[in-house]
Write the structure tokens for this entry.
Amino acid sequence: MRWLRSVRLRLFLAVLATCAPFFATNVVREHYPALALARGAGLRCDAFVVDRADPAAPGGVRAEPLISDLFRHHDGHWYANNQVGASLVAAPVLLAATPLLDAVEAIGRRQAAAAAERGDVPQLDSAYPRRAQFFADVFARGWHLLLPAVAALTALLVMAPAAAWLALRFHDELVRRGVAPGRAAALALLLPVATPLLFRSAILNHNQLVALLAFAAFVVLRPGAPAGATATRGRLLVGGACAGATLLFDYSGVVVAAAFGLAALVDGARGGGAREAARRGALLLLGALPPVALLLFTQWWQFGAALRPAQHWMPDAHWSVAGYRGIDWPDPGLLVRNLFDPSFGLFAFAPLLLLALVPPRRDDVVRVAPGERRFILLFSAAFALFCAMNRFTDLQWNTGFRCLAPVAPLLMVLAAGPLARLSGRGLLLLCAPFALHALVLAMFRFTSPFRPASFAESTIARSWGAFLERGIQLPWLTSWRQSQGGGPWWAGFAATLVLALAAIVSLLLWRAGARAAAAAEAAR
């Protein structure tokens, strides 16, 4: 077990084992361009459109996408209504898995044909009509195995490793800031359940990937730090690339890029005047050019207009009629909901992050410079304000926490200060309830197709109610049982066995690595 001596490797594997079992089979907007790319269709999502009988439509047939996030452009082809950065990341995974996916699809098609011949087509056991209709459309094409396989692959091979990498970088950042390696590892293991990282990593999600890039930019650029070492050419180029890449995933990246760009100018002016500020700004901009160029290319590739995003072309829907395509003046009520709503609020999903607002102390173990603290708080406030301008964030009751994901890892850096002061037992006693809260939300992922009218209908209330009634569950297993009319007898406790196995393997690997590290240290 010599290869497990590294705490960093053990940490990566432990977080991977934590996130992987909670993957969900939900197929989201970003999956469709990814699968289209892997199958040689570019970014056109024409394959994911069904024909429905409609006497009022020309020819009596109306084309309708599997999900409402796909729209038909002027060229007659169908595209996703957001940036395709997450799809570009997922596409190589799906391309590499093409033989597996082709085999799964072939099995699904045979099952669908046999069910149709018997007149025994399964129905999804769901209280939500649109989900039942989606399953019916997918089964009719024989994709009822293919699409869950796509969702599983992207969750297990993209999102779970991304979460583990984020925890690893968080650990390294705490060690750099003076935290003992053992305590840093404990706080990094806490990261997936102290923040909504576990909940969001179950599905291919662009907001969580923006969070990863924003944290990477923070680690590389160290905005607000007094040390001049942060201004090296390499750091500025890499930091600029990370900040600029957030735009490729979502236009909330405007806030990320602007915040880090402004911080670079301020830090440069403070450390070396206007000339140094210009140098830092120019290098940051140079680093951001490649991902921004890729964004413009994808927009040109899809719509023939590099400077106009998908949101410009999509038809009016939901909040797109407010302001410019859903971006309007900040709504104070939406700001509060984004922070505290029991169906999607940041602090409702991750109450432990409120510790980020605790004033620092002189004896804090985690060294955070006053300028860094100001940057984190101002960045978080600016991002929350932007989300209060984006009327589409008011639809998160249908997805759970999502839009404020980029601020969570940065707030956790500040929350680590009070947490690092606690003893091991105190840390366990404080964090155990919050960890259970995060696990319950990740287990059930209860979201409503209609805006909840009361707390009892919220994601938090319904998830906890289901946990108290049904016990331990896993999203993918729940979906499978719904499609099987409940499933076999052993399905009721399979989730408990899977999580117990993951916990036991993680613990054994951690202890084996610790023993190997201790033996190596004693042999020196």
User: Anything to note?
Assistant: The mean pLDDT is 90.
